[in-house]
Amino acid sequence: MIFRNSRDRYGNFVVALHWLMLVLLAAVYASMELCGFAPKGSELRANMKSLHFLLGLSVLALVAVRLCVRWVAGAAPAIEPPMGRWPALMARLMHAALYALMIAAALLGWLALSTAAKPVTLFGFALPMLTSANEALAHPLKDLHEALATAGYALIGLHAAAALLHHYVVHDNTLVRMLPRRGSR
């Protein structure tokens, strides 16, 4: 089944969700970074911000899907050769931090927009405001959202660096378990 993990690899759907999340997160970051090149008050800038909001909320939705699929997929494939206790703990903490980042950044962005009384839409549907307007709270929430986004660069970079370290230095199957399967030749 495409959802189930095997003993040595993640299921196809789990792998697809992982790499889709990477593309989605890259688009979230790119939309906001590129927004800075558009003149303030321009339609392009407004569209880039809207795209950022849409993508950020899409991350939140995809995290929910990933967590459900992770539960259905079963145990993660074993790392061969096995990691020690401390590296395994660090890996679990990194994954928890990444999930917390994706959830908290999206919710803080939505909350910051709500407190600034800015409408939030997802695929054309207006989402409910999470709270009433509160200009005094809007700016600190936006600052916290941006601080988490900055921390996200470091977390994502560390995650990628760890995968490469496992593959090229430790020589275990950590990275290979998450790569898409190659077609038979």
Automatic annotation (TrEMBL):
<keyword id="KW-0812">Transmembrane</keyword>
<dbReference type="GO" id="GO:0022904">
    <property type="term" value="P:respiratory electron transport chain"/>
</dbReference>
<dbReference type="InterPro" id="IPR011577">
    <property type="entry name" value="Cyt_b561_bac/Ni-Hgenase"/>
</dbReference>
<dbReference type="GO" id="GO:0020037">
    <property type="term" value="F:heme binding"/>
</dbReference>
<keyword id="KW-0249">Electron transport</keyword>
<dbReference type="GO" id="GO:0046872">
    <property type="term" value="F:metal ion binding"/>
</dbReference>
<dbReference type="Pfam" id="PF01292">
    <property type="entry name" value="Ni_hydr_CYTB"/>
</dbReference>
<dbReference type="GO" id="GO:0005886">
    <property type="term" value="C:plasma membrane"/>
</dbReference>
<comment type="similarity">
    <text>Belongs to the cytochrome b561 family.</text>
</comment>
<dbReference type="InterPro" id="IPR052168">
    <property type="entry name" value="Cytochrome_b561_oxidase"/>
</dbReference>
<keyword id="KW-0813">Transport</keyword>
<keyword id="KW-1133">Transmembrane helix</keyword>
<feature type="transmembrane region" description="Helical">
    <location>
        <begin position="12"/>
        <end position="32"/>
    </location>
</feature>
<feature type="transmembrane region" description="Helical">
    <location>
        <begin position="93"/>
        <end position="113"/>
    </location>
</feature>
<keyword id="KW-0408">Iron</keyword>
<keyword id="KW-0349">Heme</keyword>
<feature type="transmembrane region" description="Helical">
    <location>
        <begin position="52"/>
        <end position="73"/>
    </location>
</feature>
<dbReference type="InterPro" id="IPR016174">
    <property type="entry name" value="Di-haem_cyt_TM"/>
</dbReference>
<keyword id="KW-1003">Cell membrane</keyword>
<dbReference type="GO" id="GO:0009055">
    <property type="term" value="F:electron transfer activity"/>
</dbReference>
<protein>
    <submittedName>
        <fullName>Cytochrome b561</fullName>
    </submittedName>
</protein>
<feature type="transmembrane region" description="Helical">
    <location>
        <begin position="150"/>
        <end position="169"/>
    </location>
</feature>
<feature type="domain" description="Cytochrome b561 bacterial/Ni-hydrogenase">
    <location>
        <begin position="9"/>
        <end position="180"/>
    </location>
</feature>
<keyword id="KW-0479">Metal-binding</keyword>
<keyword id="KW-0472">Membrane</keyword>
